[in-house]
User: Fold this.
Amino acid sequence: VQLVESGGGLVQPGGSLRLSCAVYGYTYSSYCMAWFRQAPGKEREGVTRLDTSIMYADSVKGRFTISQDAAKNTLYLQMNSLKPEDTAMYYCAASSMGCTWYPADFRYWGQGNQVTVSS
Assistant:
């Protein structure tokens, strides 16, 4: 089982980025899929998660969108109206133990992608 991320980078405040997470080794639709992020000196936090419903952290509601392409077995995170406080390493993750905001519940992780929001 492997999660391979792409799409991070440097963007100015107010800009947009899209992260991708390609899933290999299983059909992701049978798992809870989520995006987490971790800023320097802070704990890893949940950003959004998807199984039978979609949930967003309050800090990203209305700006971030999680989506999927079943044919490509790929998960996406569209990030709009980015703010400097969104700067972090972003990770996709998969869990067969249900959908929560707790990183310890997620068994599979992508390698992480740095997102930097700065002028």
User: Anything to note?
Assistant: The CA atoms of residues 22 and 63 lie 22 Å apart. The mean pLDDT is 94. The chain is about 0% helix and 50% strand.
